[in-house]
Amino acid sequence: MNRIAMRVSAWMATAALALSMTGCGYNDFQRLDEQTTSAWSEVLNQYQRRADLVPNIVATVKGEANFEQETLTKVIEARAKATSFQITPEVLTNPQALQQFQAMQGQLSSALSRLMVVSEQYPNLKANQGFADLRVQLEGTENRITVARNRYIAAVKDYNILARSFPSNLTAMVFGYAPKANFTVANEAAVSAPPKVDFGK
Question: Of 2.30.30.40, 1.20.1440.20, 3.40.190.170, 3.30.420.40, which CATH number belongs to 28-183?
């Protein structure tokens, strides 16, 4: 009889613990943490997809006589920096590391954008079907990057709200669920400044 009572007590304690863990947001942390990790993986996947396109774009552009060398060099250097950044799980909880990663990806975006603008000055390059296909792939990848980043931003927002809200913030403290870093605007000062419009005379 004593053994049965002990088993019932153990079962009730386990059930009570499970209920308390559910009520304190523990399971929500598991779900949202997994969601942010998955969203982050998709961001990295799309950035890698873009980085993989760069060598083909560079090789095609190099075939164009007298192409602006400085522009090409900046693309190559920006890709090298972006792909050399070590991605670790700590990046997601370190705003400085995420900002550094974002800055490197931003430099590659700018360099590729400049390359596309300069390529407009070369009729042979514009007529090259291989280059046109690569350009379409690049544009598609840039769109996928935007979608993936937006999903990550939304996932982090949900996670951070849980980490900062009562009583789930107590669970966060006990189990070490720190708020995660999120993407920011690369140049907040420039974005907040009113646009300059000049219609000429």
Answer: 1.20.1440.20
